Amino acid sequence: MTDRLPDMLAATVARSPDAPAISDSTGAAWSYADLNRAADEMAQVLTGAGVVENDRVLVLVENCATAAAVLFGAWQIGAVAIPFNARQTEGEVARVIRHATPAVVVGTVDASPDAARHVAALGGKEVTGAFGTIALHKRASDPEAGLEDVAVLLYTTGTTGDPKGVMLRHSNMIFGGAASSELRALSPEDIVYCALPISHVFGLVSVLTGCVLSGAHLMMEARFSAQKLYDAAMGGVTVIPAVPQMHALVMQYVKEMGLATLNAPALRYVSSGGAPLDPAWKRKAEGFYELPLQNGFGMTETTSGASATRNPIGSPDISVGPATPGTELSIDATAPGGDGVAEGEVLVRGPHVMKGYFRNEAETAKALGADGWLRTGDLGKIDENGNLHILGRSKELIIHGGFNVYPPEVEAALNDHPQVIQSAVVGRTKDGDEEVLAFVQVAEGDAPQLDDLRAFVKERLAAYKRPKHIVLATSLPAAPTGKLLKHKMIEAFADELP
């Protein structure tokens, strides 16, 4: 296997140049030869703008074929791409520019009015070519040693304090893409639906890189909607990777149509990532798709997947599966939140672990040990079959009355209720303790009574785990991935909390 992403694309082009590569919501429909041609032309544009090896190229994106061309064009000339969601604020964009000092800022304006707005504010100009239309703002070149093997910097949304741009090597991404392709048995006959933003590691590596490696057809959607996912599934999509929130919303959409199942003719593989599953919700989702719902665990620092399931439909397994081939998992039960025996911080080691945090040696040293183990910040346990179970983020652990409360367990109890679409549970410090708060999404005109919901939860949770306050809402703050933004819940619903 090649160790650089442009060579990976070239190999796929050599095998099947005319095969469908990418289609998107702008109307683009590219073959692999088209993608390669667009990347070549983009490399010329970037070189003409003064970009050289080890320069950073900030790409303000929403999912589209042009975004893939910009990434591969940057990689062709040895530059480091920084895919960053264009829907972030001006302050968040400025923060990345200050830290990463990119040589150029590129916006995928065909698919994103927000990208056009950001680059226009910087004084950028539009450029049109085989890649579509971009807006480009030229800055001073600032090459830096030590980036020769780095393909991308990925900045975590909503981080505070020192910036943490995750450096992923070409080899990290190819390993992660190959693992994803093998897990899903991707082939040129597949059509893979991608509403997961490619500014996030899940969409970038598990989906885009995995598809290009295998020669599959990638159907990119700039912004998730339940209706678009439904239409794509009914239109012949074969693989849907998503996060639980996306599954919950499409299930609700179909329910409102008066249907119980999706009944998609070509769909063969559905996966969920980003949050633990509870048995009742998993059964509901499998009944809806009439397929097994595969689950997995990964993060930006592990180039997406580190473990994954391969279960048959109806399996009671709600773990995130065993380690993917080539990956090692371990538990540090002595870490904060651990029980000193079997539960503790999840550690990962393997060829997909990041190089480190860009220009942040202190945070790199905290996360990466000299022995190669990465501290994930997630709490978990490994069962007797070698399957990893995620209990929650160590920073989200709620300690109420001296007891550990894992938010996913409380969310699972709430989500079992037939009128609950999804929920987010957080802790709030009050009177020297932490109280459990729940924010619950329901459909307009179909909300449960609070007393009924409390009684429902009471049957499923010990007293110390039950929410002190429950807020019902028809929408909850969410990232472009669909993942709920727990750190914004209290602020968003401050008026509804005592």
From TrEMBL:
PROSITE patterns: AMP_BINDING. It comes from the Bacteria. This is Acyl--CoA ligase. PANTHER family: ACYL-COA SYNTHETASE (PTHR43201), MEDIUM-CHAIN ACYL-COA LIGASE ACSF2, MITOCHONDRIAL (PTHR43201:SF5). Residues 409-483 form the AMP-binding enzyme C-terminal domain. One of its GO terms (biological process) is fatty acid metabolic process. The keyword Cell membrane does not apply. The keyword Methyltransferase does not apply. Gene3D superfamilies: 3.30.300.30, N-terminal domain of ligase-like. Keywords: Ligase. Belongs to the ATP-dependent AMP-binding enzyme family. Residues 11-358 form the AMP-dependent synthetase/ligase domain. Residues 302-312 have a biased composition (Polar residues). Residues 302-328 are annotated as: Disordered. One of its GO terms (molecular function) is medium-chain fatty acid-CoA ligase activity.
